[in-house]
Amino acid sequence: MSSSAPASVFPRLEPRLALVSKPVQYVGGELNATVKDWDCGAAAEGQDGAGQDGETVRWALMYPDAYEVGLPNQGVQILYEVLNEQDWILAERTYAVWPDLEKVMRDGDEQGPIPQFTVDAHRPVGAFDLFGISFSTELGYTNMLTALDLAGIPLHAVDRGADHPIVLAGGHAAFNPEPIADFLDAAVLGDGEEVVLRISEVVREWKSEGRPAGTMPSARDELLRRLAVSGAVYVPKFYRVSYAEDGTIEAVVPTHAGVPWRVRKHTLMDLDAWPYPRNPLVPLAETVHERFSVEIFRGCTRGCRFCQAGMITRPVRERSITTIGDMVENGIRKSGFTEVGLLSLSSADHTEIGDIATGLADRYEGSNVSLSLPSTRVDAFNITLANEFSRNGRRSGLTFAPEGGSERMRKVINKMVTAEDLIRTVAAAYSHGWRQVKLYFMCGLPTETDEDVLEIAELAKQVIATGREVSGRHDIRCTVSIGGFVPKPHTPFQWAAQLDHETTDQRLAKLREAVRADKRFGRAIGFRYHDGKPGIVEGLLSRGDRRVGAIIEEVWRDGGRFDGWSEHFSYDRWVGAAERALAALPAAERGVDLDWYTTRERAYDEILPWDHLDSGLDKDWLWADWEDALAAAEGEDIEVEDCRWTPCYDCGVCPELSTETQIGPTGKKLLPLSVV
User: Fold this and answer.
1) pLDDT per residue over 382-421, tens digit each?
2) Cβ distance 3 to 203 under 8 Å?
3) Ramachandran category for residue 54: left, alpha or beta (phi over 0 → left; psi -120 to 50 → alpha)
4) What share of residues in the chain are helix, strand, coil (percent, to 5)?
5) CA angle 52, 54, 57 (to 5 degrees)
């Protein structure tokens, strides 16, 4: 936590960028980026309540992947803008550096190693007050360790002193931060827009008081105590975890007065009041998403039992049609992007999606602006909607996600879409001029058999046959994309056994052969899948406890980087690290291995590593839904309806968190744009 302005590392970095691939990703200077004075709080002092004694609160925000993946991330962009809107807060961004630049930075120059830097002003990350890392996937954990080490921040939170930033995790993976608890000072659960400002207020007050230690062993601990008792964050060091003889958790107990027994997630209730990003970042280098994205609603109550995102983001909160229209127009004007993505977990479920589609298509007809929806539920798709979104742009392929290959599996996961629904939908699409459909499924779901997976091939063949029949053409294509199922915390499947990677690969091999063996349809069906090994590692990290931290560190020390990239991922490295790290545990904590964390089914009375972290979901409701899934597997006709359209079914979120589902319609329409 440096108070004096640190020097930019760019003069040291720039001469060496010719030695690395894609150097443009490290230079910054994007359109709408923000560079503020290091002591902006001093300039803000006395301005309408800003600046306690001129203190500045400084954030370094990281998406722990390469620039091309990290820059489009909306979560980081939103927090970057929300923080920088405050005169007394400075926020800059950093991303994971590729191994070639990591080596260059470690080799350094006559001044020593070049530290992890921000892309905005190329300031050292270690000089900031707070280092916030957003994890949408657990496979970014090793990249976090690289960034900490390059920044000169001790890997373990217990080794950090007053001059080191507070390291916070956020994003979906933070709903079980226990595997990285040793490396974190704190974790934020849920929506970040409001809570980052609350955290900043606590830090500013502590700094303005002279960074006191109070009754705590150190000033750093006092700041963490203040953050913990405020309810803003979860501080792992203030919770003692003990283990039973069978390896399970015996208890998780707070160690300081005022620290809550359970830490609640944060829920932003009025999305219209937070229409971010207002100033979208426009990258200098090519990124994975070259578009401006508008989140049209947050949360999902469809009740798919495998879906962590749908469970932890409840309740549903819609943006109004007028706010969406304003955000689209502002984003196009501020960024120059010509593609606009309307994002959510199930965008076609917005209560005003028809009016949104028609209104936007009318506004931008005849321009170069195109509109897109992400993967659409089969039962929410209609041709009118699709035609509106393709009216002004290219007619690209359509993506649907039945998830389960058989009717039985779809009932198990509560994805209530029949084969007839799918065939009817693709028939409508092919008959109206579409030529390409992509279908997304999962392999390894609870109670799944080989036969369930092989039904995917039959479904794909039906899709091609239907397309040829209704279109009268033979250039019909269907791509089948399959991901391995990973049980996630805060879902009904959090107790489920994960399928071992050998069985996953065998089933996928049988499916591939079933597709290829049919000469009538095989060439028209594309087949994409990943082997089962990365899923096992993701399963270890998603449901692990604090003992898994030693495995992550061992993998990192053995060269693990960018584990979400197939060309960098090494399953053997993870297996070897798990064997070594778990064997080195204290005797009282042994008896666990990779299979114990992944392919083992949990019991109702087992304390799960994340039970003290409150997503609002009632654990008994989750267990009952898990039992319903097993009953559905045996043929019982059980369906959990969407509470947007039916009475509440007691998941617990709304009464627990004092929230409520917020949906339209508002009765408003998008007006044509006025000429300025």
Assistant:
1) 888 888 888 876 666 788 999 999 999 999 999 988 999 9
2) no
3) left
4) 40, 15, 45
5) 80
